[in-house]
Design brief:
Layout (H helix, E strand, L loop, with lengths): L2 E8 L7 E7 L6 E10 L2 H7 L9 E2 L3 E9 L11 E4 L9 H4 L17 E2 L6 E2 L9 E5 L3 E3 L6 H4 L5 H12 L7 E5 L3 H13 L3 E6 L2 H9 L4 E4 L6 H7 L6 E6 L4 H10 E9 L13 H7 L2 E4 L7 H13 L11 E3 L4 H9 L6 E4 L3
Parallel strand pairs: 4-8, 11-12, 11-14, 12-13, 14-15, 15-16, 17-18
Antiparallel strand pairs: 1-2, 1-4, 2-7, 3-5, 3-9, 3-18, 5-6, 6-10
InterPro entries: ADH-like_C, ADH-like_N, ADH_Zn_CS, ER, GroES-like_sf, MycoS_dep_FDH, NAD(P)-bd_dom_sf
Family: Belongs to the zinc-containing alcohol dehydrogenase family.
Keywords: Metal-binding, Oxidoreductase, Zinc
Length: 364
């Protein structure tokens, strides 16, 4: 039997979010209903709201979430009722060409729920990243659930569902940062600071945070940066990075902004044969122009990081264990805890650069 719960939607481009009644149908054979305990407020949700993803309104926002499995479909075997799970938007299919080539972190055919959620008038909702978690309960595919330590704070665990995992993975998976490496990160919001935390965890000895906001640079130091560069105060960011690395540049640099000017800085601020990782998301109109000879003569690798090139079943439990051991300070990313009625204000705080993460908590 279907049920009605409260959820936050974006009805049209740029319109304020609304807290409305949402109808959850019975789950399909491999679907599950998860009672949401916490969900981070991510830039991707804001992009949906502003029309930066597509125009398939109305959107059910939220995707960076953790909760308890409440109901399972008839053929579900991956999780059970009562499991504490982090939701993920890369439900590895095992059948696409990436999976069959042994690269499931590039899976091209992820799973979503087989039946849609809707408004009470029957209007179907488009869930953000196939999840939709600014809601009391959501309907997803069983493989969009990853079981983790049930003792973990849901507000912390849920962060692995998107932005924090993207940053950690950009450093640890895509950038393959190793012990003794030098690393720089351009853009010290939630994703960039997660890349800094990942570089520290991987054993980098020089970690340079680059931003134009002094408050963000302080956050970066708290999460592992050994040096900071304020882009508004130095004449040239590339020279500033080289001065901190014996004139060489860094082994790995992560662009968590995703603009042509920051990518160009990243390209030239790395050492010869160094690696550039792009994890900031550019807009479709952006263009990059660089001399082709510089691509050849500098060598190294230019990579894009999708979701931190993560495997949720491999990475989420491991990272939660590291958090519980005190080795990964995931809790430092939680700036404020808010309710479902506070999502619009949380978006405003995020745009103003006042938070690393606002997290919506849903009380039992």
């Amino acid at each position: 039997m279907s049920q009605t719960v409260k959820g936050v939607i974006s009805r049209s481009k740029g319109a304020p979010t609304e807290l409305v009644d949402v109808v959850l149908p019975d789950p399909g054979p491999r679907d599950v209903i998860v009672k949401i305990q916490a969900c981070g407020v991510c830039h991707t949700d804001l992009a949906y709201k502003q029309g930066g993803i597509n125009d398939e309104y109305p959107f059910l926002l939220g995707h960076e979430a953790a909760g308890i499995v409440e109901t399972v479909g008839s053929d579900v075997s991956h999780v059970e009722v009562g499991d504490f799970v982090v939701l993920n938007w890369r439900a590895v299919c095992g059948e696409c060409r990436a999976c069959k080539r042994g690269r499931p972190w590039y899976c091209f055919d992820t799973f979503n729920a087989s039946v849609p959620m809707s408004l009470t008038d029957g209007t179907e909702l488009t869930p953000a990243l196939g999840i939709g978690a600014f809601i009391e309960k959501t309907l997803i595919h069983e493989l969009q659930c990853t079981k983790v330590n049930p003792e973990t704070d849901p507000a912390v665990a849920g962060l692995l569902g998107c932005g924090v995992m993207a940053g950690l993975g950009a450093a640890m998976n895509t950038g393959n940062v190793g012990r003794g490496d030098s690393v720089a990160v351009i853009g010290c919001g939630g994703v960039g600071d997660a890349a800094i935390a990942g570089a520290r965890l991987a054993g980098a000895t020089t970690i340079i945070a680059i931003d134009r906001d002094p408050a963000k640079l302080e956050w970066a130091k708290d999460l592992g940066a050994t040096h900071t560069i304020n882009g508004a105060e130095v004449e040239d960011v590339i020279t500033a990075v080289q001065e901190l690395t014996d004139g060489n540049g860094v082994d790995v640099i992560v662009d968590a902004v995703g603009r042509p000017e920051t990518y160009q800085q990243a390209f030239y601020a790395r050492d010869l044969a160094g690696t550039v990782v792009l994890v900031g998301v550019p807009t479709p109109d952006m263009k990059l122009e660089l001399p082709l000879i510089d691509f050849f003569s500098r060598g190294g690798a230019l990579k894009s990081s999708w979701y931190g090139d993560c495997l949720p079943e491999r990475d989420f439990p491991m990272l939660i264990d590291l958090y519980e051991q005190g080795r990964l300070p995931l809790d430092k990313f939680v700036t404020e805890r808010v309710g479902l009625t506070d999502v619009e204000a949380a978006f405003e705080a995020m745009e103003a650069g006042k938070v690393l993460r606002s997290v919506v908590e849903l009380k039992a």
